[in-house]
Amino acid sequence: MRRFLKACLLIIFCGFLLTALPALAETEVDDVPRPSLSEGLNVTDIPAEKVDQFVTAYLHVVDLIDDRSEDLQRAETEAEFLQLQRTIEAAAFNLMQEAGLTREEYFQLLGLANADIEFRDRVLAQIEERDR
Hints:
Layout: H1 2-13, H2 16-20, H3 22-26, H4 48-74, H5 78-98, H6 103-115, H7 117-131
């Protein structure tokens, strides 16, 4: 239950990734082009597999941020902070890719979870299911 509540708060809070990393979110990792999720797709049409991949990536990214936030707070210089931030971002992007998502897909789904109550509920239901 603790993880579920944390995830609820972090889905809303993690919107900062959309504003803090816009240039990185547009950078494509894969060489294989994939269709955009937002191209004429209704939230109810997002396949369960994509939601599952997003939840997997999201939970790993949340854990990564949680694990490394103290390191960021302890950074003594701006250069050290920025280097840690880049390292964390790279690790987060690797986690997204390992879950089967491109950066673009991850950020689209994160934005959708922040903006669409129906999709957020769908994501939170999967998170709660995994927390059992």
